[in-house]
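Hello Y.,

Per our agreement to keep a running log of every chain we model this quarter, I'm adding this entry. I've kept the format consistent with earlier entries: sequence first, then predicted structure.
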Amino acid sequence: MKNFLNISDLSSQELREIIEEAKIRKSKRKKLNKTAVDVDSPFAGKSMIMIFEKPSTRTRISFDLAVKQLGGSSIILNPDGIHYGKGDESIKDTAKIFSEYADIVMIRTTSHKNLEDLAEHSDIPVINGLSEISHPCQVMSDILTFEEAKGNIDGKTIAWLGDGNNNMSNSYIAAAAKFNFKLNISCPDK
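Predicted structure for the entry above:
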């Protein structure tokens, strides 16, 4: 898999493989402390650049800890502290620089277009940590949590309560089609 920008970009099988791999890894970590590296260290010698255009607590901690648990390292960049499409450096230029220095990029952005541009010009995988259109990692973790508590999500009914046209509802709609669950959406009139 090259990038993970939207749930709709991956096949049902690819998404299922991600969930099943997460279940296995989580089960194997039960006796490890939070900072211990997984025995197989699949990211050994690899680094992930993380960009946070939007503030974050859970996403920042989750991604930073996860890459370390997988045996890798992380570099957290503030978009105000780098060129990132500003001045004489385009997003294409930034993508090429990231590709030279790291193995993967995760971005939490206010612009899905910037995310797509970064992925288009990057030679390394790009993960959507959140955009105004999509929040695929959050919905995937919600599905994992559901399945840990209630079993396989296939054929189940899930309710979404909140804004009707936002990144979470968009990702839930895509996930319902890929994971074959019924989705009921309830949102305020305005």
